[in-house]
Amino acid sequence: MGALAAAFSKTHENVVPRVVRMLAELEHRGRDMHGIATVDSLEITRSPQELPGLGIKSNAAIGHNLSCIFREDVPQPVQYQDAKLVLEGRFFPLAAKNDVREVVETDRKDPAEKARDIIKRLDGSYAFAFLTSRRLFVGRDSVGLTPLYYGEDDEAYVFASERKALWALGIQTVNSFPPGNLAIVDSRDLIFQPIRTIIKPEVKPISMKEAAERLQSILGESVNERVQHIKRVAMAFSGGLDSSVLASLAKSCNVDTHLIYVGMEGDLGMHDAERTAELLDLPLHVKTFAREDVEEVLRMVLWLIEEPDALKVSVAIPFYWIAQLSDGIGLNVLLAGQGSDELFGGYHRYLREYESSGVKGLEDALYRDVTSSYMVNFERDNKVCAFHNVELRLPFADYDLIHFSLSLPVNLKIASTEDQLRKRVLRKVAKRLGLPSTVYNMRKGAIQYTTGVDRVLRRLAKEKELSLKGLIEKYFLEGRDLQEKIG
Question: What is the maximum alpha-carbon separation in the chain?
Fold first, then answer.
């Protein structure tokens, strides 16, 4: 786990200082080792402050910051034939050894062909960059689970794991790299090639019984692929449907599963978590927070998620605490249930869509939300977890699972325009797993409301005589200066 940075000059100028600067801005994502490579050189250091003194010059460069989650993790970049490679993230199923070694040691293809082949064949949460003598190849996984951004100015094309790295170069227009695409870069142009993206499948008739059986099998395999070769895992846990299903499946994989619950003082949702954890016979780690804790982390969380969005920050704060608690008890891999609501119609707003636009409109809305989840949810949560040296893994955001779920008829997800439960097929899976009716009949509760964070933010805004939007924008602007304090 760590951070990727890359740059290619339009004018044949030296871009190494740009990559060094981006790595310095992203040190919070990888503190253990730091590397930079050009076509003719490759250097690894223990501090990003050592990189400027190496005297490397080139019109193209890639770099990486590493956090060692497992002993198999190796410093990067690495050599691949006559090219250099940075791979940030994991492939699923997990390799027995580090994924970058798997890439380097198997299928010795041309780097351009290898780059396309990675996206086409390999599922996972990853971004990568191949640097050759003439071009730069940059790619991202098909679902968009690992953050990756790009931008340009008059001098260069640049890529990095977080926006703030590009902002540090004075590039204000920063775009999220399209999932499942390969960018081919040279001094004249940047071209995107879609390799393997999420395509809306044909909806096929299937019974509820068969759909639940197949969903349980595919989801179980997705969980298993994300916990192979590890002994202990944390689970972001509410006691509700999504997290309880995942916790049950993780337990069946014989991995030591620890449930993590956070909330505000007096949070009533804690009782659901405690009851379900007891039924699952899994350890539950609970931590409650006060109003002042929200204000204390608000600037930091906004700096991490890089957007003055009230909804996103009210979700990110609990995730920040979950990752913090996970790291504090020595658990650096975290499972979570993001992606489920978009696949199975969990949000209440889908009822309005169903009523106003019918089956076709709801199918379109679900597909649209699934394919935009990388910008709405995945990038945000990865960034707050990475800050705490925690690797986030999302079993619902699996390519095969997504394709299957999108092919299911709407009535297996939402029974009618008045269905207050929704996610019907997933509830059948919960029942098949032996979970109690208190779980599979529980209504959807959004984390920002069940934890009480949204309520505290609104109260804080009122005390400061600001709207919630005004409060978030104020703290966001103040948070843009946090990098100097962290460094």
Answer: 66
Angle between helices 241-252 and 424-432 (to 10 degrees): 40
Q: Are 64 and 17 in contact (CB under 8 A)?
A: no
pLDDT in tens, 389-426: 999 999 999 999 999 999 999 999 999 999 999 999 99
**What domains sit in the chain, N to C, each tagged with a CATH number?**
2-194 (3.60.20.10), 208-479 (3.40.50.620)
Residue partners of 453: CB distance under 8 A and separation at least 6: 264, 294, 314, 317, 318, 447
Asked if 324 contacts 293 with a C-beta cutoff of 8 angstroms, the reply is no
Reported as a single tens digit per residue, the pLDDT across 426-483 is: 999 999 999 999 898 887 665 655 677 888 999 999 999 999 999 999 999 887 665 4
> Is the distance from CB of 322 to CB of 334 less than 8 angstroms?
yes
Q: Rounded CA gap, 69 and 66, in Å?
A: 9
- Distance in Å from the first CA to the final CA of the chain: 19
pLDDT at 246: 98
* Residue 191: count of CB within 10 angstroms of its CB: 11
- Global pTM reads 0.95
Which one, of 17, 2, 354, lies nearest residue 162 by Cα?
2
CB atoms within 10 A of CB 56: 20
Token code pair at residue 479: 């948070």
CA distance 224 to 251: 10
Between the CA atoms of 102, 108, 110 and 111, what dihedral angle is there, to the nearest 10 degrees? 20
The radius of gyration computed from the CA coordinates of the chain, to the nearest angstrom, equals 22
CA angle 154, 86, 23 (to 5 degrees): 55
Q: Which parts of the chain register pLDDT below 50?
A: 483, 486-487
**Residue in the block written with tokens 């325009």:** 417
pLDDT at 452 (0 to 100): 78
Q: What is the pLDDT of residue 486?
A: 47
User: At residue 199, what is the residue type?
Assistant: I
Determine the Cα–Cα distance for residues 76 and 476; give it in Å rounded to an integer: 32
